[in-house]
C-alpha cells in the first residue's frame, strides 16, 4: 500500500489537475465511483486506478474488475488519495485515463450530412457550465457538442463531475476554427441557430424539427459577430425587464428541450 504523499505517482496525479499536465501526459483525472463505473462501462482505457482499503471493501466486485482490466491498480492510504484528488472529500478512488487526441475526438468530414441535433459553444470558460451542458445534451440524445479551442478543457475534472458521467456518452469535438465548422454545416443545409438576447424571434417560434445546430457563446460576452453572421437564424429567450441574461447552461437546456418537444410528434424518443 502506498502511504507516502511524496510518492512519484502522487506527483503524476496532481499534474492532471492542470491543463498543462493533461496535455503533457495525454491523460486526465477521474474521481469517484460513478465516473469510474461509466468509464468501465464504455471501456474507456484507464492506465492507473488508486483506491483505499475502505473503498475496496465497499466495492469488492468493482475492484476485482479494475484489477483485471487496468495495467496498474494501487492500494493507497486515505492521505495519499486526498493528495491525488481535486475534491475536498474524495469517495475513495481516483484514476488516470487516456486522453483522446487534442483532448477529444474529431468528426469525419462528411459527418455534417448525418447530423440531426448538435450544440456548438464558443469561448466557454466555466467547467461547471460545460459539464451541465454535456449532461443535458446527452439527455436529449444530441449527436454531439462542439467546443472552440479557446474554451475550458473538456476533460477538466469539474467538467467530468458536472456531466454526471455523461461525458463518456456524448461525442465531444474540439474545433480549431469554429466559424469554419459552422460554415461547413451551413453548406450541408443544416439550420444554425444563434442565441441572441436582442433577437426578435422567440426560440419556440422556430421550426426545430429540421436538422439543427444550436450556437452558444461566452458567459459574459456571448457569441462573436462572426458566428452570429454565420448562423441561419437568431433566437432569444424572453426575460423579465429586470433580468439581463440567463446562465448559458440553462439556455442550452431550454433550447435542447424545445427541439425535443417539437420533434416528439414526428419521431420516437431514443
TrEMBL record:
It holds the Pfam family SpoU_methylase. SUPFAM superfamilies: alpha/beta knot, L30e-like. Transmembrane segments: none annotated. SMART domains: SpoU_sub_bind. Its EC number is 2.1.1.-. Keywords: Methyltransferase, Transferase. One of its GO terms (molecular function) is RNA binding. It is an enzyme of class 2 (transferase). Residues 29-103 form the RNA 2-O ribose methyltransferase substrate binding domain. The keyword Repeat does not apply. One of its GO terms (biological process) is RNA processing. GO terms for cellular component: cytoplasm. Belongs to the class IV-like SAM-binding methyltransferase superfamily. RNA methyltransferase TrmH family. This is tRNA/rRNA methyltransferase.
